[in-house]
Amino acid sequence: MPWETQRAEPAEVPAQPPIGTALLRGARGRCPVCGQGHLFDGYLKLVRECSVCHAPLGRIRADDAPPYFTILIAGHVLLPFVFMIEKAWHPPMWVHMTIWLPLFAIVCTLLLRPVKGAVVAWMLRLGLTGDEQGAPIVVPVRRGPGDA
Ligand SMILES: [Zn+2]
Q1: Residue 131 Cα, ligand 1 centroid: separation in angstroms?
Q2: Domain of 90, in residue numbers
Q3: How many domains does the chain have?
Q4: Which segments cross the bilayer (predicted)?
Q5: Å from CA of 63 to ligand 1 middle
Q6: What's the gap in Å between 51 CA and the centre of ligand 1?
Q7: How far is ligand 1, taken at its centre, from the CA of residue 125, in Å?
Q8: Nearest residue to 129 via CA among 22, 56, 44
Q9: Distance CA 32, CA 16 (A)
């Protein structure tokens, strides 16, 4: 599919709920604004806009924030258990690796999507809708069969 760069039009964001409500809706994978439309099209890809309230969700670029917060949360939840087990039983390193590496991977995989939803809700609440400083937005362009 061909791509072109278009100048971003300022996004019109409907009236927003309180920040706590928006964060919870985002974490549940729902539109942070209306709470009814879906936020994701797949595991982590955002929908272009909310199907109900047309909030411009797909223009928000969360970048590295969701993985950062996911690792932060997973580390604070699991590391105390790693240290408690090490202090109590001193298991060999291969036991730690066999238990903790898959567990960290599973916890991070389960946390990443709700954390990204909450980050997107937070960014939308802050007005970070992807058109800051007139940054161009890459959009797919449909061409007819006669176009070159
Ligand atoms: Zn919506």
Answers
A1: 19
A2: 3-135
A3: 1
A4: 68-85, 97-115
A5: 21
A6: 6
A7: 13
A8: 56
A9: 8
